[in-house]
Design goal:
- The protein has 191 residues and is mainly α.
- 86% of the residues lie in helices and 0% in strands.
- It has nine helices and no strands.
- It has helices at residues 2-14, 18-26, 28-54, 58-85, 87-93, 98-112, 115-130, 135-158, 163-187.
- The radius of gyration is 18 Å and the shape is elongated.
Length: 191
């Protein structure tokens, strides 16, 4: 959600287009909703993994992590498809102003491409937090946030993009966070 907030701030300050600002800002409630769904899934993953870690049941930990990864990826892809193809109906449902609608649809469709990455990051966050590692996910998310802000500025100021530039920056940032947490999970040798 903070990535979307950075997108709004950069597009508002540097794009010179009130329409672009309104377009990106119009998507905030939808971005929060679908991000919240993925965070909810990761909270469930966290509870199950922590439960089996506490019980020292390595077999159930492994099965839970494996199946949770699959569920997270499927959820991320499913949300991407839903958001990509239903962007305009969703934005009409929340009464997005006509002047902002085309830009909001463009932003939300591009942004939705990052939802599978966001799902993977939240999965990893749930698993690592369950075993007491809350520091690394925070570091990875912070790195993603810094990359997002830097790319927002680059795409908007240097490349002259607005809505599409900040959406692409968010996608890249989400996948960087997902890759960082996945690499960490692959390095863990226990259950």
């Amino acid at each position: 959600v903070l990535f979307n907030t950075a997108d709004v701030a950069v597009v508002g300050k540097f794009s010179g287009s009130a329409t672009a600002l309104g377009a990106v800002g119009s998507t905030t409630i939808l971005v929060s909703l679908f991000t919240g769904i993925l965070i909810g899934i990761s909270s469930g993953i966290n509870v199950f993994v922590a439960r089996f870690v506490g019980a020292k049941d390595d077999d159930k930990i492994k099965k839970t992590v494996d199946s949770s990864f699959i569920i997270s990826v499927i959820s991320g892809v499913l949300l991407f498809v839903i958001c990509f193809f239903l962007a305009k109906p969703f934005l009409l449902l929340i009464k997005t102003k006509e002047a902002f609608l085309d830009g909001a649809v463009e932003y939300f469709r591009i942004y939705s491409i990052g939802l599978p990455g966001l799902a993977i990051f939240n999965f990893g966050n749930g698993v690592l937090s369950a075993v007491g590692d809350t520091k690394r996910p925070l570091i990875y998310l912070t790195a993603g946030g810094i990359i997002n802000l830097g790319l927002n500025l680059f795409f908007v100021i240097v490349c002259g993009m607005d809505v599409e530039g900040v959406a692409i920056a968010s996608i890249i940032s989400q996948y960087v966070s997902a890759i960082l947490i996945t690499v960490r999970l692959l390095r863990v040798k226990d259950s």
